[in-house]
Amino acid sequence: MKGQTASAGFQIGVRRTFPISQEQAWDLLVSPEGLKLWLGDLSALELQVGQGYTTKEGISGELRVVKLFQQLRMTWQPRGWEKSSTLQIRIIPNPTNADKTTISFHQEKLKDVYTRECMKKYWEEAATRIMEKVKNRVAIIHSLRGRIKGGC
Asked: Which CATH entry fits the domain spanning 4-145: 3.30.420.40, 3.30.530.20, 3.30.360.10, 3.30.420.130?
């Protein structure tokens, strides 16, 4: 069946390329503002293996892998789910352009095909929210640069 493996059950992957550096992508994703875009309302996420978290929306889990600027791997369990899934986020730099980075969300151990489709939509919407935030930041930076060059 599509999206199902023998070892990880149902899974989904969503990735998007953003016009920012790998470091900027990481900083955005782990900031309180960025966490709201993909994880939920959480004042901070201490980046330590074994660190637990619970969002105001009821998503909870534990960090399993933390590789600075590169990867987060965690358990991910919304309120109402019987079992947790595994979520991996990778921040992949573009080898030819330091100002482009791919953010990849990969979630496995999903219950069934319905949950897979729901999570596909969730991660696509999260990627869209991140892109909107990035575009707004880039527009502000360009506006400020224009003002500085213009003398006002």
From this structure: 3.30.530.20
